[in-house]
Amino acid sequence: MLELRLVQGSLLKKVMESLKDLVNDANFDCSATGFSLQAMDSSHVALVALLLRSEGFEHYRCDRNISMGMKLENLTKILKCAGNDDIITIKGDDGGDTVTFMFESPSQDKIADFEMKLMDIDSEHLGIPDAEYQAIVRMPSAEFARICKDLSTIGDTVVISVTKEGVKFSTKGDIGTANIVCRQNTTVDKPEEATVIEMQEPVSLTFALRYMNSFTKATPLSSTVTISLSSELPVVVEYKIAEMGYIRFYLAPKIEEDEEDTKPQV
């Protein structure tokens, strides 16, 4: 038996809005400790990991580990029927082939329930090793979203370079080049407006802007974003979800081709 009751139902709506363009269908895994998802995007380039810890729910009952395969597009359609202030309850039976969503208005004068068919989805659970990162940047999430959006008007890729001076986002395209530098500033009045850089050594990596822009759909979940970079590892773009968990996006860097390789073969 599974029963999860989330008072801040809008959190779940925001989570799904941030995932639906990246992932088509995925297994939601429920255990005694929390509600999680791990999935590759449809082109197998990016990985997303979501965790909502059990203590963040008002009521959380999960008698045994259960995996529910859902089409994210369908789930988003159902969640759109919930008001932003609604309390969301998710119910499922062990071994059942449906999941029920119940939306209650705060005044409890309206209750809606939707039953959704589950899918069988083969998905391998990838072990994501804990790693030491050469550079970790924490910055306002809206700022990061704006930078990715602005740079994508110029080019297709972004070079993220971290030095003691700050973090630089650069791109180049047919119409020219663009560089945006964010310097470390920890003296701002509000901590969520600070840009904080922890750097073991300078790092510079290239990523596809299409994916970065997709990740920034999670901006409404958190006022800050943490970007962890290491030369041999995928970047981790992490948004905290209230006090109850996180959504992390992983993207492998693009390998810049050597100039010799780009010459036409004679």
Automatic annotation (TrEMBL):
<comment type="similarity">
    <text>Belongs to the PCNA family.</text>
</comment>
<dbReference type="GO" id="GO:0019985">
    <property type="term" value="P:translesion synthesis"/>
</dbReference>
<dbReference type="InterPro" id="IPR000730">
    <property type="entry name" value="Pr_cel_nuc_antig"/>
</dbReference>
<comment type="function">
    <text>This protein is an auxiliary protein of DNA polymerase delta and is involved in the control of eukaryotic DNA replication by increasing the polymerase's processibility during elongation of the leading strand.</text>
</comment>
<protein>
    <recommendedName>
        <fullName>DNA sliding clamp PCNA</fullName>
    </recommendedName>
</protein>
<dbReference type="GO" id="GO:0006298">
    <property type="term" value="P:mismatch repair"/>
</dbReference>
<dbReference type="GO" id="GO:0006275">
    <property type="term" value="P:regulation of DNA replication"/>
</dbReference>
<dbReference type="InterPro" id="IPR022659">
    <property type="entry name" value="Pr_cel_nuc_antig_CS"/>
</dbReference>
<dbReference type="GO" id="GO:0003677">
    <property type="term" value="F:DNA binding"/>
</dbReference>
<dbReference type="GO" id="GO:0043626">
    <property type="term" value="C:PCNA complex"/>
</dbReference>
<feature type="domain" description="Proliferating cell nuclear antigen PCNA N-terminal">
    <location>
        <begin position="1"/>
        <end position="125"/>
    </location>
</feature>
<comment type="function">
    <text>This protein is an auxiliary protein of DNA polymerase delta and is involved in the control of eukaryotic DNA replication by increasing the polymerase's processivity during elongation of the leading strand.</text>
</comment>
<dbReference type="InterPro" id="IPR022648">
    <property type="entry name" value="Pr_cel_nuc_antig_N"/>
</dbReference>
<keyword id="KW-0235">DNA replication</keyword>
<keyword id="KW-0539">Nucleus</keyword>
<dbReference type="Pfam" id="PF02747">
    <property type="entry name" value="PCNA_C"/>
</dbReference>
<feature type="domain" description="Proliferating cell nuclear antigen PCNA C-terminal">
    <location>
        <begin position="127"/>
        <end position="254"/>
    </location>
</feature>
<dbReference type="Pfam" id="PF00705">
    <property type="entry name" value="PCNA_N"/>
</dbReference>
<dbReference type="GO" id="GO:0030337">
    <property type="term" value="F:DNA polymerase processivity factor activity"/>
</dbReference>
<keyword id="KW-0238">DNA-binding</keyword>
<dbReference type="GO" id="GO:0006272">
    <property type="term" value="P:leading strand elongation"/>
</dbReference>
<dbReference type="InterPro" id="IPR022649">
    <property type="entry name" value="Pr_cel_nuc_antig_C"/>
</dbReference>
<dbReference type="InterPro" id="IPR046938">
    <property type="entry name" value="DNA_clamp_sf"/>
</dbReference>
